[in-house]
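Q: Focus on the chain.
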Amino acid sequence: MTTPRVLFLCTHNSARSQMAEGFLRAMARDRFEVQSAGTEKTAVASGWRSGRWRSAASTSALHWSFEDPSRASGNEETRLAAFRRVRDQVEAKLTGWLATLSDR
């Protein structure tokens, strides 16, 4: 049986898609081959690197829209709250998605 491949794609590959990649790797272990990429390359947090999406052959796609926390304005506390909010939304979405796969 082939391991399903999952690609998380967002604009910069600096926050949302990398959060999703990390969560899915932790939640599903080796059930999926997981990668993330962006349509534009940018700086990211230490220990991670930004990948740029070039092309992908896909048989199915899901679109999950999350706000871009890197666009949050205000003081550090406000910007950090935006990242935490998106982090929690990404985690909840993946948890729900994995539950639907278990029901099949």
In short: Helices lie at 16-28, 76-102. The mean pLDDT is 86. The longest helix spans residues 76-102. The first strand starts at residue 5 and ends at 10.
